[in-house]
Design goal:
single chain, 614 residues, alpha/beta, six-stranded mixed sheet, 42% helix, globular
């Protein structure tokens, strides 16, 4: 089988900092590849090299002739004043297709992405809807390979579920392969069939397995244990050779000289293996609590807040106690960050206040917030000043630590201390903010999307620290793995003024899907709003016109059922029941085929309306 895209021996460095060396990979049709690795390992740079946007220092990239690559960068490339549909039209302007085909592609994608108003200017979209549009923009050209850099950033959980269904679809216009960078572990497990990790710990520059993320973790553990065993065996051999050298044999024969040279080579090899085995550092995260014993930290009753006549939530009660870890769930713009800002403002009685309701605080309550917008960072400040604003040391848990020691705790190198913040990666900036939080003793932690841009090792340590924090935690995140492990209660916002408590994420999702099946007016407001006006009908018959008018609703219902089946098939009780699992799997195949037929029929009717019969 001829590879769609491959590279061999790629090396890239910026100045004295080497990002990766000797990277080789192959992407074949049917691959959905997850590219992971610690911050600064060069994942985004590797994607740009493969897409021809940057040049490697050495190595070769092989691309199949006439291959079309769709690239989704971390930063959205959209025209702010233009509408959603106009942005997609502009993306396919250079394609050799007629106007009718262009119209079909654009409107089919906007419908599948459930945009309520295709003419809405981009500048009015939330971060999640901007990301959906950016994904559609990468797909509208129907690429052979879809390359995405952190596609789940800024998406709410419903947006991530939509993207998972999109990547799992088998429609004729789907990409032949997908290559993406992501730190969302649940998303990776649900979508990829290959995992590649870039890290200096691997002699080949990367570690690659075929399978899901869980398979990767298992095989990586085996690999690292083997490397550790190799280090121990090599250390024993070096120790024996060193002891022989110290005995100082009188006769320096050829064989003796060879042993001296071999001992030196073994020492070099051992040093390299030790360096690699220790290069997977972890961020040292541990939040500082005040030690307060008060049972009630914050009690809010009857909270209501709205903007421009739209109520985000009303009659909401919130009780924060030590040990409570509350996760906030809902679409972007449903009120999660607004509630966080209201709680953060409660200690100073200023800032964003509720329209109605009251908030009672324990005496001297200390609330510490993490803002996803990162507005507290001065982009022109050096890393040294960002980590230690008052001098060359910080006070952490009653001890004075030099800024160099503090920086190393967060995996920063000493030579980075004079680097301006704006030149650091998103993950490195997130680590600066977490470092600042750790210096502030808190009764309540308010974390709004703290996981954005953090690498997977940092996420693991963050989870452990949040579980050990003795105070109250309020968390907004799209990382479902983090939600499941950390939160012991969730508050779900429906985007229509209601907020309800649930035991966990799965219960909230099940209720949301049940409301969608029932067709409640407020269960899916974005998906069910009246679409933009369509062009005047062409020569559709009466029955074809009726079929056309009902087509979008049928597609939405079919895709909703596919989402239900995915959730059902992941349930433990279903996995343990082979017969039930087989029935759901068979129904999923039938629904996928039905959805493809619906899209084909929709395109056929659209061509007739445009006067194109071929």
């Amino acid at each position: 089988m001829c590879a769609l895209l491959s590279c061999q021996g790629l090396t890239k460095a910026f100045g004295a900092q080497e990002l990766f060396s000797g990277v080789t990979l192959v992407v074949n049709a049917g691959d959905i590849v997850g590219l992971i690795g610690p911050n600064g390992s060069g994942k985004s740079t590797l994607l740009k090299i493969l897409c021809g946007l940057e040049q490697a220092d050495s190595g070769t990239v092989f691309v199949q002739k006439l291959l079309r690559i769709g690239y989704l960068s971390q930063e959205d490339v959209l025209v702010e004043e233009a509408g959603c549909a106009d942005n997609l039209y502009a993306a396919c302007a250079g394609l050799d297709i007629d106007e009718a085909e262009r119209y079909n592609r654009v409107n089919a994608l906007l419908s599948r992405a459930r945009f309520p108003d295709p003419q809405q200017p981009v500048r009015l979209l939330s971060g999640g809807w901007r990301k959906r549009l950016a994904v559609c923009r990468a797909l509208v050209c129907r690429p052979d390979i879809l390359v995405m850099d952190e596609p789940t950033n800024h998406l709410d959980i419903e947006g991530i579920l939509w993207l998972e269904r999109l990547l799992g679809s088998t429609l004729p216009d789907s990409p032949a392969a997908v290559l993406m960078v992501s730190h969302d572990r649940r998303f990776l497990e649900n979508t990829v069939n290959r995992v590649i990790e870039l890290a200096p710990v691997y002699p080949e520059g990367s570690f690659q397995i075929r399978g899901g993320y869980a398979d990767f973790l298992e095989k990586k553990t085996d690999y690292l244990l083997q490397r550790q065993g190799l280090e121990e065996r090599l250390a024993n051999k070096v120790r024996r050779e060193t002891e022989w050298l110290r005995r100082g044999p009188k006769a320096r024969t050829t064989k003796a000289r060879y042993r001296i040279e071999e001992a030196g080579r073994l020492q070099d090899e051992l040093g390299e293996i030790r360096d690699r085995n220790r290069s997977l550092g972890q961020v040292g995260i541990a939040f500082d609590a005040t030690g307060r014993r008060t049972k009630k930290l914050l009690t809010a009753t009857g909270l209501e807040k709205g903007f421009s006549g739209q109520i985000l939530f009303s009659d909401l009660d919130v009780n924060l106690t030590p040990g409570l870890r509350l996760g906030l769930l809902g679409r972007n713009g449903s009120g999660k960050s607004t509630l966080m800002r209201i709680l953060a403002s409660s200690t100073r009685r200023s800032g964003l206040l509720p329209d109605t309701g009251a908030i009672a605080l324990a005496d001297g309550l200390r609330i510490v917030s993490f803002d996803q917008r990162r507005q507290s960072l001065d982009p022109d400040a050096t890393l040294r000043r960002a980590l230690a604003p008052e001098g060359d040391s910080v006070i952490y848990q009653g001890q004075s630590l030099h800024v160099v020691t503090w920086a190393k705790r967060f995996l920063f190198r000493t030579d980075q201390l004079e680097t301006p913040v704006y030149r650091l990666s998103g993950g490195e900036q997130a680590r600066i903010l977490i470092a600042r939080l750790m210096l502030q003793p808190a009764d309540v932690l308010l974390l709004d999307e703290p996981t954005n841009d953090l690498d997977i090792p940092s996420l693991d340590v963050l989870e452990e620290s949040l579980c050990e924090f003795p105070g109250a935690l309020v968390l907004v995140t799209h990382d479902r793995f983090l939600l499941d492990r950390v939160c012991n209660l969730v508050l779900g916002f429906d985007g229509a003024g209601r907020a309800e408590y649930f035991a966990d994420y799965d219960q909230w999702l099940a209720v949301l899907e049940e409301r969608e099946r029932e067709g409640g007016a407020d269960s899916q407001p974005q998906a069910r709003e009246k679409p933009a006006a369509k062009p005047k009908p062409g020569k559709l018959s009466y029955m074809d016109q009726r079929e056309y008018d009902q087509m979008e609703e049928k597609i939405l219902a079919a895709e909703a059922r596919l989402g239900e089946l995915e959730t059902l098939m992941a349930a433990p009780e279903v996995v343990a029941n082979p017969g039930q699992l087989q029935r759901y799997w068979q129904e999923q195949l039938e629904m996928q085929a039905q959805t493809e037929l619906l899209y084909d029929r929709w395109n056929e009717l659209e061509r007739i309306r445009q006067g194109k019969t071929e």
